Amino acid sequence: MQAPEHSLRITRPDDWHLHLRDGDALRWTVPWSAAQFARAIVMPNLKPPVVDTAQALAYRDRVLAARPPGSDFEPLMTLYLTDRTAAQEIARARASGAVHGVKLYPAGATTNSDSGVTDLRLVRPVLEAMQREGMPLLVHGEVTDPEVDVFDREAVFIERHLQSIRRDFPALKIVLEHITTSHAVDFVLAHDARDARGAPLLGATLTAHHLLHSRNAMFRGGLRPHYYCLPVLKRESHRRRLLDAACSGDPRFFLGTDSAPHARGAKEADCGCAGCFSAMHALELYAQAFEQAGCLSRLEAFASHFGADFYGLPRNRDSIELRRQPWSVPDSLPYLDTRIVPVDAGTELGWRAVCDAASQQQA
Ligand code: NCD
Ligand code: ZN
User: Fold this and answer.
1) What is the number of the ligand closest to the CA of 226?
2) Catalytic residue among 14, 15, 258, 309
């Protein structure tokens, strides 16, 4: 048997789905992501949401101002699609060069999604404009129908809405975000159309926590709120399909952490928030998942090539090192004036990313 590798050097990765929050939180969130990732698609679900280009540019400035000294971390901004989004906004967003996607949250689907779309028919002119401008639609793929079982919401969204969006806007670039089911994998695999550059027209991001955990993690020995995110973790057979997709070397599947920080008290509560914080150890978590699946050699393309190719951006030129150096994820960390519990708090991970000083400072 071959001796296991002790070090792994990969092209610097990008995070294609990230929540940085706003205000004071930026000084805390941005350094974590900047330590591992060169770029990130920054979600617009602030309170109030980022709904136009001017707001996205202002938010971008706030993110840039929160970078640690010397960091060239690049936030790739997104707009939050609402019932009232004007089709003309898309050309403005495209022309800014700073907006890289428009996020569809069905109203009420997840954290800060109250301003989301209530009826997809209302946004057809916007989708038309996005198709024309080559602006990707980033989809939180869950129905909000209270009649639908929470574990079925992704599958039902695909059936009720995504099939028809795909059919009606065949040249629209679509990312199905943080997929959690075999239905989502099958939907992506069934669509192999390419854009003019030869990049896929349909892709999907995968989080580390959905690759590592089934829904059992939420109930291990009691209720575990720090594993509650949306879309919610699914049964083990789905997790295995996600892992197969991530490890397949298919360029339609790429990294998006969905790191979504919530203070400890907001999660350990009567009505706890959805969202897992994983930015501090994202690469280590993905490496753990890929190694467990015996496909560590596929990590680089998934983390560092396919997302950039999908978005039509150059791959990063620098690299990052991972060392086989077991370490324990802290039980909690200081977060603003309180604390936060990272994903897999207290567990041992086999790999450690060699990051710049900014992140070590916080640990
Ligand atoms: C995200 C958040 O907290 O902003 N929560 C989550 O559970 N993933 C929102 C989202 O991406 O759904
Ligand atoms: Zn998210």
Assistant:
1) 1
2) 258
Distance CA 306, CA 69 (A): 29
Q: Which CATH number does the domain housing residue 162 bear?
A: 3.20.20.140
Q: Could you tell me if the CB of 230 is within 6 A of ligand 1? A: yes
Q: Ligand 1 within 6 A of 111 CB?
A: yes
pLDDT band, residue 3 (cuts 50/70/90): low
Domain count, the chain: 1
pLDDT in tens, 110-165: 888 889 999 999 999 999 999 999 999 999 999 999 999 999 999 999 999 999 99
Is residue 319 in some structural domain?
A: yes
Burial of 12 (0-12, 13-18, 19+ CB in 10 A): middle
**337 is an active site residue:** no
Per-residue model confidence as pLDDT tens digits over 268-295: 999 999 999 999 999 999 999 999 999 9
110 Cβ inside 6 Å of ligand 1: yes
In a domain, 2, yes or no: no
pTM score, two decimals? 0.97
What ligand is nearest to the CA atom of residue 258?
2
Angle (CA) 94 180 209, round 5°: 95
Q: Which domain holds residue 23?
A: 7-360
Q: In what order do the strands lie in the sheet with 7-11?
A: 7-11, 319-328, 348-354
